[in-house]
Amino acid sequence: MTATRPQSPRYFTEYLPRLCSVSICVELRRQELEKLSIKANQLLVSTKTQIVSIPLAGKTADYDDVLSFARVENGFVTLKVPALADKAASSIDQLTSTDDSIWSIRDLKQHPQGVFECAACSQPIADLSKIRKLHPMPSEMWYEMMEFWHCHKPTNGNYTNDKIADRFNNLRPASDTLIAATRLSER
Known about the structure:
2 domains, alpha+beta, ubiquitin conjugating enzyme binding, ubiquitin protein ligase activity
């Protein structure tokens, strides 16, 4: 008979820079869990049979016991802890407004007579000379704010105004506003 090593629980961690927090989800039943702590950017999950170290997606302070802050239900332990600010990347907007992005607002303003065309058929999509406002696409971090949108979404409860619900459920620019495109060419 060979001894088997206990299996580590499945987990997911995510750094949410706009919320300055680290989100953690561990698949674990409450009866197995004895203690949760954070040390050196690792979540230490103490069960009756083992201590599992889970690397966190962002830097956090050390905490001796965070079990009381965790939500434990349906076989999952979920937790959000404050992230430590990173001085080098203190503004997430620097990531979303750099010239490295394919079509930054700065790039588009340099081509006021440009035309966006379909990459497959070269059919014109948008004439920049007719665009009054330029808005960048939501950053890759847009989903971080979803929990706030969902908490205050106008369709919660007995509220049934379809016009307001449609406004919040669709990404539609005004007729003179540009949000996204695939390719820019000069006329």
